[in-house]
Q: What sequence folds into this?
């Protein structure tokens, strides 16, 4: 996650937000509460959230899931964009962080749209597949442990319908993916995913310099 778009000057970002951002009050307050926290930098940027909301609306999405909920901003922004019968399956391992989001989901009137599932993301997605949900989701957002991104990707392709979209956060990783001297597990995993997606004919693809890098992959 990234609270601002990487590589963009503060002057340009301020202008962008001043003429583009439309942010629900609950989103504003959740972002403000999260920012000063120890891991507050993991929250997605407001401009990324708005893009995701627009994508959900363009897709006509009703069924969505995310892997990596943190304090709940991404789940809230998607839930607000969904129709009344829309649902977000929010997968995370932390009761502590997600408890913050729950308050804002309730205040925004969308708590009934968000199905929070605590546990390892791969296990949750496997259970969804075993439960017969193959090909039934419209949109997925992945922003969790980077070494499992490939596993999340393969499961997302199973769960998404044809024409469904999966969005991966942090694909630029603060520029580390460009530096071949960076060989930590997370950077290596992101580099590998980026190369895999580029060559994967199962999807149509676009990598955007939004937030910390956002890749959109549409299932063909």
A:
């Amino acid at each position: 996650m990234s609270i601002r778009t990487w590589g963009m000057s503060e002057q340009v970002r301020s202008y962008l937000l001043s003429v583009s951002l439309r942010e629900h009050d609950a989103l504003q307050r959740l972002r403000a509460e999260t920012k000063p926290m120890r891991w507050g930098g993991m929250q997605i940027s407001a401009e990324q959230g708005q893009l995701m909301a627009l994508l959900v609306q363009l897709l006509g999405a009703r069924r969505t899931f995310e892997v990596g909920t943190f304090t709940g901003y991404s789940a809230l922004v998607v839930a607000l964009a969904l129709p009344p019968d829309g649902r977000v399956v929010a997968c995370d391992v932390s009761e502590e962080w997600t408890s913050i989001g729950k308050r804002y989901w309730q205040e925004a009137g969308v708590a009934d749209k968000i199905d929070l599932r605590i546990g390892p993301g791969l296990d949750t997605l496997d259970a969804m597949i075993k439960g017969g949900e193959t090909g039934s989701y419209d949109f997925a957002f992945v922003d969790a442990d980077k070494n499992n991104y490939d596993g999340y990707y393969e499961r997302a392709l199973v769960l998404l319908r044809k024409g469904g979209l999966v969005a991966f956060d942090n694909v630029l990783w603060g520029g580390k993916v460009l530096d071949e001297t960076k060989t930590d597990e997370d950077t290596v995993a992101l580099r590998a995913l980026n190369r895999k997606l580029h060559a994967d004919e199962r999807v149509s693809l676009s990598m955007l310099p939004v937030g910390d890098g956002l890749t959109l992959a549409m299932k063909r």
